[in-house]
């Protein structure tokens, strides 16, 4: 069994509903199935730079944890030990502290580490693996844009949050005959926008993968007016490409606000925007995310037991499998503009702000 007696767990990058469920599953599996001790690494890898912050994860810590959002370990998206930023004499300096991280883990008796995180955290995990640390990865992002796994936990919960927001905006938008815009997360991929848009019955969906024009959107709103549809619901992913006019209008960095201002000027309708933001990252995980997170956490511990280091758990179809972390990182899964989901939405009459060929 690889002489494992103690493992560490870290959570890095932006949080996602289900992180705590992964921690719970890993701790339970380590205790119940293998009799190992588990150490919590606070705030990404920072806990291994300052080992006095490390603590043992006991049954008490994980009891009742499956339904809790966030991460009890804390997280950071600035926690790269290879490029650790600190202030020295009033100046920002960057230091490589990876050696300390590897040494401190060994000194604490940690034989292997589970790295729960997105692309950035997995890349750090891989570098540590190359420095001799035994790591296994668990993928995480609400954006669902990692190509190595069919689904990431957190996505389903974020989708539910966005869909509920759309339902509410539809109520008020319909009453006031307004154009209602919901901006959702999705820096590089439009999965949340596309799924929530379909689930919430949005009239227009704007995603990074499909360039759009405000003229086409304004025209579409007008076409709806002619059909006595006096309100329009638009979902926009935060990463949509903006033209010069919209970039100038988007001083706040919110494409939703820019699109609202541009439509306001063109349609002479009352337009309102809601930026859903980090509400999508919090909350109790959905049943689907709890099950997926539990499967990932437990499978990660099994990988350690089998000595399969440098691997990341993933979901393929209905099976939990594993891939090399090196193969998993840096490959985004984006929406196929010609794919079934987009086609289905178009069949519902959804406008993507482009002019599709017939
Ligand atoms: O988790 C990914 C993500 O949700 C992106 O869609 C978004 O741009 C980003 O996190 C925001 O992260 P933060 O504000 O925490 O840096």
Characterization of this structure:
The structure is a single chain. The longest helix has 22 residues, at 155-176. The strands form three sheets. Strands 3-2-1-6-7-12-13 form a seven-stranded mixed beta sheet, with helices on both faces. Strands 9-10-8-11 form a four-stranded parallel beta sheet, sandwiched between helices. Strands 4-5 form a two-stranded antiparallel ribbon. It contains 13 helices and 13 strands. The protein is elongated, with a radius of gyration of 23 Å. The protein is α/β, with parallel strands linked by helices and 358 residues long. α8 crosses α10 (255-267). The protein has two domains: 6-153 and 285-328, 3-Layer(aba) Sandwich (Rossmann fold); 156-281, 3-Layer(aba) Sandwich (Rossmann fold), CATH 3.40.50. β1, α1 (19-34) and β2 (37-41) form a beta-alpha-beta unit. It has helices at residues 19-34, 46-49, 59-62, 98-107, 119-130, 155-176, 191-199, 214-226, 244-249, 255-267, 287-305, 325-328, 340-347, and strands at 6-11, 37-41, 55-56, 84-88, 91-95, 112-117, 135-139, 179-184, 204-206, 232-237, 271-275, 311-316, 319-324. It binds 6-O-phosphono-beta-D-fructofuranose. 6-O-phosphono-beta-D-fructofuranose is lined by residues 14, 77, 141-143, 185-187, 238.
Structural class estimated from helices and strands: alpha/beta
Give the class-level CATH name of the largest domain.
Alpha Beta
How much of the sequence lies in strands comes to 15-25%
Using the coordinates shown, work out and report the CATH topology of the largest domain: Rossmann fold
Q: How can the largest sheet be summarized?
A: 7 strands, mixed
Distinct ligands: 6-O-phosphono-beta-D-fructofuranose
Number-wise, the strands total: 13
Number of domains: 2
The span between the termini is 60 Å
Give the strand order of the largest sheet, numbering strands 1, 2, ... along the chain. Answer: 3-2-1-6-7-12-13
CA-based gyration radius: 23 Å
Number of helices: 13
Contiguous uncertain segments of 5+ residues: none
């Amino acid at each position: 069994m690889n002489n494992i007696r103690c493992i560490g767990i870290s959570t890095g990058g932006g949080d996602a509903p289900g992180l705590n469920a992964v921690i719970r599953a890993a701790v339970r599996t380590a205790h119940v199935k293998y009799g190992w001790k588990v150490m919590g690494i606070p705030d990404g890898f920072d806990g291994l730079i300052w080992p006095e912050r490390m603590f043992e994860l006991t049954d008490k810590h994980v009891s009742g944890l499956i339904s809790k959002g966030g991460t009890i370990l804390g997280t950071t998206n600035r926690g790269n030990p290879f490029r650790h930023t600190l202030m020295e004499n009033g100046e920002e300096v960057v230091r490589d502290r990876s050696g300390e991280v590897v040494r401190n883990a060994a000194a604490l008796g940690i034989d292997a580490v589970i790295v729960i995180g997105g692309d950035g955290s997995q890349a750090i995990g891989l570098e540590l693996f190359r420095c001799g640390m035994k790591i296994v990865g668990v993928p995480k992002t609400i954006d669902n844009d990692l190509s190595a796994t069919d689904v990431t936990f957190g996505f389903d919960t974020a989708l539910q949050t966005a869909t509920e927001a759309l339902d509410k905006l539809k109520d008020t938008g319909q009453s006031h005959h307004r154009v209602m815009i919901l901006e959702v997360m999705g820096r590089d991929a439009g999965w949340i926008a596309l799924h929530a848009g379909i689930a919430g019955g949005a009239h227009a969906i704007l995603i990074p993968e499909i360039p759009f024009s405000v003229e086409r959107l304004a025209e579409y709103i007008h076409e709806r007016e002619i059909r006595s549809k006096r309100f329009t619901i638009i979902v926009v992913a935060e990463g949509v490409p903006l033209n010069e006019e919209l970039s100038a209008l988007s001083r706040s960095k919110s494409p939703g606000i820019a699109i609202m201002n541009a439509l306001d000027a063109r349609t002479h309708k009352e337009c309102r925007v809601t930026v859903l933001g980090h509400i999508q990252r919090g909350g109790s995980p959905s049943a689907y995310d709890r099950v997926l997170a539990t499967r990932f956490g437990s499978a990660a511990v099994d990988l350690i037991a089998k000595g399969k280091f440098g691997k990341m758990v993933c979901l393929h179809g209905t099976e939990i499998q594993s891939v090399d972390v090196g193969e998993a990182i840096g490959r985004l899964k984006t929406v196929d503009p010609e794919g079934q989901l987009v086609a289905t939405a178009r069949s519902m009459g959804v406008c993507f702000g482009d002019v599709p060929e017939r």
